Amino acid sequence: MFFNSNVLAAQEVRALKCEILDNPLGIDVLNPRLSWQLFASENNVYQEGYQILVASSEEKLNHNQVDLWDSGKVASDNSIHVKYAGKPLKDKEDAYWKVKVWTNKGETQWSETAHWSMGILTYANWKSTRWIGYDHPFEWDSITTHSKLSSRYVRKEFRVDKSIKQARAYIMGLGLYELYINGAKLGNQVLAPLPTDYTKNVKYNVLDVTEELVKDNNAIGVILGNGRFFTMRQDYKPYKIKTFGYPKLAMQLVITYDDGTTEVIKTDESWKLTGDGPIRSNNEYDGEVYDARKEIRGWSSAGFNDSDWINASWVQEPGGFYEAQMTPGMTVKDSVQPKHIKTTKYGTYILDMGQNMAGWLQLKVRGQEGDSIQLKFSESLKEDGSLYRENLRDAEVTDTYILKGGGVEVWEPRFVYHGFRYVEISGYRYLPTVEDFIGKVVYDDLETTGTFECSNEIMNQVFKNAFWGIRSNYKGMPVDCPQRNERQPWLGDRTTGAYGESFVFNNHTLYAKWLDDIRYAQTEDGGIPDVAPAFWRYYGDNVTWPGTYITVANMLYHQYADTAVIKKHYPYMKKWILYMESNYLKNDLMNKDKYGDWCVPPESLELIHAKDAALKTDGELISSAFYFYLLDIMQDFAQLNGELSDVTYYADLRKRIKIAFHKKFFNESSKTYSNNTVTSNILPLAFEMVPSEDEQQVFTNMANQIEQKYNSHISTGVIGTQFLMRTLSEFGRPDLAFTLASNKTYPSWGYMAENGATTIWELWNGNTANPKMNSQNHVMLLGDLLIWYFENVAGIKSSTIQPGFKVLEMKPNFSIDLNYVKASYQSVYGKVTSNWQKRKGKLYWEITVPVNTSAKVLVPSQQIEKLKINGEKIDALNLFYKVSDEGIEITVPAGTYYIETGKLHL
Q: Which stretches make up the Alpha-L-rhamnosidase concanavalin-like domain (predicted)?
């Protein structure tokens, strides 16, 4: 029934997002997408219609004076990604919006006002803004393989004589920047802007500075760090490592006055610059050197004497197109108090954070002028208690603070981050305590969306380790590790990993940005590198690493119902598919592979990679199976884009590959594939390449091998582990998947935890392998573990038919040896919860299905008469259900449900 006359107080709508950011300043999407969430205190509430109002000022919107867009009442249940369809939006224009929703239970109030603003939409509007800098080292700098380049300090004074209505700074500071107005730092972002291949695209940020300006003399100050723009490695492997030049700045400060006039302060040669400040060196791998004696008091305030500074020079622009940063920047997201500090026999101190993390250390110290405090970082200790740093390779990973003297000094770096648990501290004149230090956890400002807890403590610790590992490696792009001289955005680490990560963090915008990075890295003929942005030039032409371009887009569609990324990137994905086919598909098999099943557990604990051929999976099998899998995704993408001829093309190609694959790799007598590694069997099973009549026997043989040959332990590397846990569950062996997930002995995720890991290792034997490759903070070996946690154990899964959690499939593996599970996930529609407990042979299950969605819930029982939902028998609730061998499948609308069964027969 529709209640037109009453607004129900029990219902609420929140205008949450514009495009894919909350209340963003400076977006460059001409028709941004709007999303909102509904909240209700009763069950079975769904949207039937909406109305969106958009105005150019909050005052106009409050009075319903809509001058940009009134959608009118639209009959639709869609509450996400609704495209703005109003007047064309102009450069730097503000838009204020609200939404009202009609539901099956009544009409909501208008939401609270949300806001976005447009950025600088054309290159022409940047053209008069000059890039400034100083394309030379200063005399105290050192340009070598381990370059020491001081930060550049840039300033400009100006006067304001009228009352200010609004002021915004549009800034590109490369490699990294901090912006100050009248002595105050603007924003909470750190390590800004996010990294890109600066020859392809450059991100600009927009900051509101209205409150910082005064009607008098004002000053702008910018500190420029090196970041990935001026890399540490100068003239070092130029064929491999990309460098971009010296730090530079382009900025517009746009001031709108109360009288309606506008003034723009732009970077030009009148700005002043010096490198003779306290930051004497900064780079991502070697650390930061800060000399407090060189601090420049008042440098970013009006009235400062800059007569001994040089005029900034006009410098060459970086080459890439200017784009608004449409994903949150990095911030200090958390802090860690160290656990303890110990004195070494060398007179230094070892600080233990108790947690492997990525960020930096803030210190507090007293001493004399010129005293030097040195902080060396590492992930682990040697047997004698000193730092173990061999796995850092040639990264120096050391911060230095030189005291100015005269009291307590507090310092933390600006333009570096470290991956570490332990810190060796030297230079204190007294015994420091743990209270003198705080660990700052730095990563992208993304919402934590998922929680998971169960009755198995190993699984809980592995989940915690995964949480810390993922956030350690979100640095404006997904990197492989935060500690050594690498920190690269390897595609293969996230092929399936991005999917699992999406349950823990709202990584929508991060991975949408990364897809752009991959597209920009594509060669003219279609090739995609293994690392993107291509800071390392690794164009190796294989399937499993570049194919991440397609699987990540599929994740964004499946988890967030984002079709825009599919439409945007489909032509480039197709270009790569055709490139690989024309160059490497021979006799309907893909004969190009580079990495194999990377990092299988080797036969010896000291080895990095297995040398035993019996442990290695045929590269042609891997690449052919994976290409087949990617073609399946491309079929769906082509269907979404209306490219029907492409659908047929991909289907025909898949059919040919399936025939050739089976002919070459299938062993008819043993019902196994190739040399019978677990990966060689799990890929064709997961990708539906096995003939239906052989499928169960192939799976049984594989499961038997895991149990008998590998003693129910992991035997797969990066590729096989991406599909291992879900395939075991889907073919009826969730018990075996649970064993793999809960093992404590080698090789397993639990083995890492039992051996002191607080993140995820790069290698299954990361505590014993050669130091060249034993990062203790990677995520690539998680495979599909987190997906299995949420979808198979907790039962929080989006339907593939209606993605983005519009329809949930809640079918937990209740038969596994767990007593309880508590899990939640903040979907685009709202919070999903699944808390189940087995007690005295019965199941007690509490679920929450967000407003405007529904769920298909599978209860593992056939006893209809014993089933209760919210205290009532199911037939009294008017719910659709059906009984099968699996149990009772119930379709439930939005709401909270308490389910209780009779005796379970699992």
A: 343-443
